[in-house]
Amino acid sequence: MGIELLIGNEDGTKIYEPAVLEGIEWETERRGTPGKLSFTILWDKRLDISEGSAVRLKVNDKKVFFGYIFKQQRSKKDGVVQQVTVTAYDQLRYLNNKETRVYENKTAGQFLKMIAKDYSLQAGEIEDTKYKIPSRVEDNTSLFEMIENALDLTLENKKEMYVLYDDFGKLTLKNISNMYVRSKDKYLLIDSETGENFEYASSIDDNTYNKVKLVYDNENTGKREVYIAQDSSNINKWGTLQYFDTLKEGENGKAKADALLALYNHKTRNLKISNAFGDHRVRAGSLVAVSLNLGGFKVKNFMLVEKCRHVYKENEHWMDLTLRGGDFVV
Question: Fewest beta carbons less than 10 Å away: which of 43, 67, 118, 252?
């Protein structure tokens, strides 16, 4: 397996290919977290690298990661620095910045493009998210949260989920329907042969609600408007699991309550796969085919990758996946 890890110096005038110890790790999460690359190199005094230096990883000439060093940890032996452990993040790291924004009549995709332009971030393929948000005020909020709020509003109103990620140095936004891991009509399959170990859990303890209650304090009438959507059948089975929130001016309370109930009125199902054969196309937000006997019943469908951890060694590549199946719950 051909692994190429390159690091630039701070001002971008030199490129180094350091001696990397085995065990490069690349991690992604679907929401609110930048892609992370961790590795350890043998120290060489000729290396002119520092925080802010660009890092590029290719495996078998395939683009995997592009980002910047944010942390270095050096170890000494006999008074001499011998190893440096490096942590790098992709562009999404800069979305942790907090800001105040007011915008109107923009889609989530248009808002993302605006953020990218204002913060000099490189934008790649950003799909049209179609739903125009009438107006939005974000006060002292991270850019990540602003974008996720816009995507949540799109999901509530259009029933369409989008995934934000960094694709080798370019901000990318894709509809979940375009995130299947496949080559032509051949899908990547996780089964008993490709996934060494697994843990499976179903729950109504996290992000499951069978009653939605939304309120709006109408300043014009001086009254509180209440909108409720509920599933009596699931309330009888599970007890009342209530989602409560306040509405902003202009929001359709009934439509939003119905949309939230449809989104959350389900069990959550999580499957963790460890030591699966690595495939660098898989990242958080991907959809992979799963066929496994989970002890008593079988799962045979597509599942959403919530978290993904790749480990690259000289002759090995494996990955750990946290998957979510059935109805997607955010």
Answer: 118
